[in-house]
Amino acid sequence: MGLLDDVNAQIAKTIKPVMSVSKKQESSTSVPEATDLGFAEGKLVSATYLYTDMLNSSGLAAIGDKEAAARVFRGFLNVSTKIMRFHEGHIRSFDGDRVMGIFTGENKEDRAVKAAMRIKWAVDQLVTPAVHSEFPSLKSAGWTLKQCSGIATGETLLARAGFRGSDDMISIGPAPNLAAKLSDIRANAAAGYVTRIGKGTYGRLSQSHRLSDGKEMWKGTCQLTMGGKNYDYYRTSYSWKFS
After folding, report:
1. What was the pLDDT predicted at 12?
2. What residues contact residue 121 under an 8 Å CB cut-off, 6+ apart?
3. Calpha distance 51→98 (Å, rounded)
């Protein structure tokens, strides 16, 4: 079979069939795996998406050797993943120096926000000192591990993509796109504002995740334009300590 036949076969398999879409129960914290869905199946979920992205990874690659860079990347991604999973987030995507978690079920906004703020604390207080201790050349060169997180909530269609066999799942809807865009914002990062959340997420936060000692933790609203629409968002420089 030639390439033309292969491509036409894929079109017949993925584009032409009408998709059967079901809706996930709101109370469940589970998120389907790609293999749970057929190629003509999709699932609507009400979800909160958290993207966490390393800052200045190109600077790390330029300053450090390849092994040092790989170990820093590995440490950052593994710590971020561990914290997301602790808060019942489901890891469904890695993209270079960025990881995406999906949170569903009750208090999904609180759990995603707490995870992001704990990632900030861990990066500042645990991972960065370990990196500087292990690689003094990075500290002397002025490179410090930092990250930005973006969070957004909304109804999203999960579908199987199958780009690598049957392992990939795509998320279709404004929420994952907005979360990714918010994690890309670098303004005010030097002042510690590295966690940004959409207006919908902010509106669903409990008081304990909006206030610290009675003081509002979030500054807003700012605006981001995406797909010809304006989206309001909030930002914070707070972190959340854990033991």
Report:
1. 83
2. 239, 240, 241, 242
3. 7
Q: Do residues 161 and 142 make contact, with C-beta atoms less than 8 angstroms apart?
A: no
CA–CA gap between residue 169 and residue 84 (Å, rounded): 18
CA distances from 228 to 171, 174, 224, 225, 231 (A): 20, 12, 10, 6, 10
pLDDT 10s digits, 143-192: 899 999 999 999 999 988 765 554 578 899 999 999 999 999 988 888 89
Query: What's the CA gap between 193 and 175, in Å, rounded?
Result: 21
Backbone angles phi, psi at 43, to 5 degrees: -135, 125
